[in-house]
Design goal:
Largest sheet of chain B: 5 strands, mixed
Oligomer: heterodimer
Number of domains of chain A: 2
CATH class of one domain in chain B: Alpha Beta
Helix content of chain A: 40-55%
Radius of gyration of chain B: 25 Å
Structural class of chain B: alpha/beta
Largest sheet of chain A: 4 strands, mixed
Strand content of chain A: 5-15%
Helix content of chain B: 25-40%
Order of helices and strands of chain A: HHHHEHHEEEH
Strand content of chain B: 5-15%
Number of strands of chain B: 19
Number of strands of chain A: 4
Strand order of the largest sheet of chain A: 2-1-3-4
Shape of chain B: globular
Strand order of the largest sheet of chain B: 2-1-5-3-4
CATH architecture of one domain in chain B: 2-Layer Sandwich
Radius of gyration of chain A: 18 Å
Distance between the termini of chain B: 53 Å
Number of helices of chain B: 19
CATH superfamily of the largest domain in chain A: Glutaredoxin
Largest interface: A-B, 12 and 16 residues
CATH architecture of the largest domain in chain A: 3-Layer(aba) Sandwich
Shape of chain A: elongated
């Protein structure tokens, strides 16, 4: 694991405690999530207890501890989206994808995450899937979106 | 005292710069608190120590506010009392309320706060958490449902023991005190010192209980139950019960345990004597060998050994290759009792009573079991000893006395030294002084530790050589000291005693739960008194120890010594 993370570690040669969060962010950007092995390796590098890192990382919503699915739904639950009906969309996603917030399905295809304001309140409700934004989402358009992903997967096989 | 402030319309003396809580407590004004610990920085987490200060809009936490000139404080105004009551009511809102079945029933800080605040009904109904208890560790059990998030264990684990096996996980109302990845303590960085149990106000952290095991063995016809009493337990009981005739504590426990059905009660101090003699011989041998690396580091503390295995594989060779007193005792008792009574070793049930939580872990280590027979079958902490005796309807306050059993009935003054930080280093130095055959004109002098905290070292001239002896208590001290030795490139320290608990075993993780560190001082006092009144001053005068070596079967390096008395240190740094 140390070898794989080598080039991240190179960016933080001073091994300071304050390097922890930027280092975790950099690793998550590429790996998508923080595995136990990653956290242990970071702990060894910075000489910080694994549990301390886990405590810090769980304090912030931005860190994930499971791999994301191939299609990663980031659902905005800021005030504007909430008023425009995000709650209904979340329930629909839970039903269709069989995942809850922060989870990934068994096939590793879909995962869902709730995020605070994306900054497009005028277009609420907003959902982001793999860096693609979907605006003014309705129940029907959401169903169609999920269906399109499923079809894509089926044809790929 | 620097000046006075007004508290509840009375004047009290305060020192510049001290916290309000310290000043109030010193003046006999009780302020409740859950999160405050002496020797630790204040956190203001529980907010129970709030007081009203004239001119301030909000209530202030007295633990994290300094005294100021002209301060007018009220510690029991109606506003203060109401605020405190609500705080406790909120803490109780998601508490399991199973006090009847709780080990801390009767000495739980939350329970007594609820009583003090006159809480007679449930005012807030919180969602009960569904956190599972963790019984995975051999020494410490956790029940997060009973946790009040006071952070005392977290600070102890991080600031004093520097392992951070416990920490706050998640945020807000999701926060729990947990080990890494919410996995069991057995796979965490825990070193089993048990200090978290010591500081926990509720039953969120408790012993892995061995009481039922012991009760079952006591009730079984074909088991011979042998108890090993650590001298520190005697000191602890004497201090706890404020006994006047302190030297009788061990005898009282002996009588009580016999009433419970124990066959033999041995003095674990015998093994401490053996341990000291061995360690001094090893130090002598290493001093004679030019290739030796110093310091020789004590290995009698299981929590320290575990820490060294986890974090300092490079010093494992420097750990003294002698088993800890507990394991020596278990070994000798099983050999002795099995022979004398013509029994199989399996039919001997060996119980050690110690002030240490780590001993439970140590007894479960792989190398301490031989072909299915453990050297020690159960370990009772002092807390559990009281509980066991209570379950048999016995009270140590009113108890007869009985002598401990031969052959391991006596311990020299040195065994009591094992109980506190610095004592062992002194004992080893003295024995080395004796071994090197200094002529009688020279007297052994050792600067005893004056202050109980922190690292201490002293230089002695033994056999024409100047030798350095050092002692530290707590893992943070040990870690800093090792780093200091390395950075300065020092080679003038030849022996290092490490105790994982603050102040040594008198502050051990298996002692009766006590807030602050006053009790460890009281226990140390008993140890020092017992040392003075002990019949035999040095380990080498212990007749059982001499018999053991005279016996001839146990010789350095022979099979018995190699398989039963040698410890095994494993590099666990990659785990």
């Amino acid at each position: 694991m140390e070898e794989e993370l080598g080039h991240f570690f190179e960016q933080f040669p001073n091994k300071k405690r304050e390097d922890l969060i930027p280092l975790l962010q950099a690793i998550q950007d590429r790996e998508g999530y923080l595995s136990e092995k990653i956290i242990s390796a970071v702990g060894r590098y910075l000489d910080i207890s694994t549990n301390k890192i886990y405590g810090v990382a769980t304090f912030y919503d931005n860190f994930r501890f499971t791999a994301t699915g191939k299609y990663h739904f980031r659902v905005c639950h800021g005030s504007a989206c909430h008023v425009a009906g995000t709650g209904m969309l979340i329930r629909e996603l839970e039903k269709q994808l069989k995942v809850k917030e922060g989870e990934t399905d068994k096939e590793g295809l879909f995962s869902m995450e709730l995020v605070s304001c994306i900054g497009a309140c005028g277009l609420a409700p907003v959902i982001e899937v793999n860096d693609q934004f979907y605006t003014n989402v309705t129940l029907d358009s959401l169903k169609a979106l999920i269906e399109s992903f499923r079809e894509k997967e089926n044809t790929a096989i | 005292m620097d000046y006075q402030i007004e508290v509840n319309k009375n004047q009290i003396d305060v020192r510049e710069g001290e916290s309000l809580l310290t000043a109030l407590t010193r003046n006999g004004i009780k302020v409740p608190t859950l999160c405050h610990m002496n020797r630790f920085s204040p956190t203001g987490a529980c907010r129970l120590c709030v007081v009203e200060v004239e001119g301030r809009k909000d209530l202030v936490t007295s633990c994290s506010s300094q005294v100021e000139k002209g301060m007018k404080v009220s510690t029991n105004s109606q506003r203060v009392l109401r605020a405190r009551k609500s705080l406790v009511e909120l803490l109780l809102s998601n508490h399991p309320d199973d006090c009847l079945y709780c080990v801390r029933n009767g000495h739980c800080e939350l329970q007594s706060l609820a009583e003090e605040m006159n809480i007679k009904e449930r005012k807030y109904y919180g969602e009960k958490n569904t956190l599972y208890p963790d019984y995975s560790s051999p020494s410490v059990a956790r029940d997060p449902a009973k946790c009040v998030l006071c952070s005392r264990c977290v600070r102890m684990c991080e600031e004093v023991q520097v392992v951070t096996a416990l920490d706050f996980i998640s945020r807000g109302n999701q926060t729990t005190v947990n080990s890494a990845f919410n996995k069991g303590l057995n796979v965490s960085t825990c070193i089993h010192c048990g200090q978290c149990i010591q500081v926990c106000p509720t039953a969120a952290l408790i012993d892995i209980s061995h009481i039922e095991k012991v009760q079952t063995a006591l009730g079984s016809k074909d088991k011979m139950v042998v108890f090993h009493l650590s001298p520190s337990v005697g000191a602890s009981v004497a201090a706890e019960l404020k006994m006047k005739s302190r030297h009788l504590a061990m005898q009282r426990i002996t009588y009580a345990l016999k009433r419970c059905g124990a066959s033999r009660i041995f003095n674990l101090g015998f093994a401490s004597d053996v341990n000291i003699l061995e360690e001094a011989s090893i130090l002598k041998a290493r001093l004679e060998n030019e290739d030796s690396v110093f310091p020789l580091v004590s290995s009698c503390c299981p929590a320290w050994v575990r820490y060294a295995e986890d974090h300092h594989p490079e010093i494992l060779d420097q750990l003294s290759p002698v088993k800890s007193p507990q394991q020596i005792m278990g070994t000798m008792a099983k050999i002795f009792c099995a022979e004398k009574h013509d029994l199989d070793r399996e039919n001997i049930f060996s119980v050690s009573v110690t002030p240490c939580a780590g001993n439970k872990y140590e007894s479960s280590r792989e190398e301490n079991t031989h072909k299915g027979v453990s050297e020690i079958d159960a370990v009772l902490t002092v807390r559990e000893l009281f509980q066991l005796l209570r379950s048999f309807g016995l009270d140590l306050v009113q108890m007869n006395e009985d002598d401990l059993d031969e052959p391991y009935n006596e311990a020299s003054a040195v065994a009591w030294k094992h109980g506190y930080s610095g004592g062992k280093a002194e004992a080893v130095a003295e024995q080395l002084f004796y071994l090197t055959g200094n002529d009688k004109k020279e007297k052994f002098k050792f600067n005893p530790p004056k202050n109980m905290t922190g690292r201490r070292e002293t230089k002695l001239t033994i056999g024409g050589k100047q030798l350095g002896f050092a002692w530290v208590s707590s893992i943070s001290e040990a870690e800093h000291y090792l780093q200091h030795l390395k950075q300065e490139g020092r080679d003038d320290i030849h022996y290092l005693e490490v105790m994982a608990c603050l102040d040594g075993c008198v502050g051990g993780g298996g002692q009766p739960v006590s807030r602050g560190f006053e009790m460890s001082r009281a226990r140390k006092k008993v140890c020092l008194e017992m040392e003075k009144s002990a019949g035999k001053k040095y380990a080498r005068e212990n007749s059982a120890v001499n018999d053991m070596f005279k016996d001839g079967r146990l010789k350095p390096g022979n099979e018995l010594a190699e398989t039963w008395l040698k410890p095994v240190f494993t590099d666990r740094s990659s785990d």
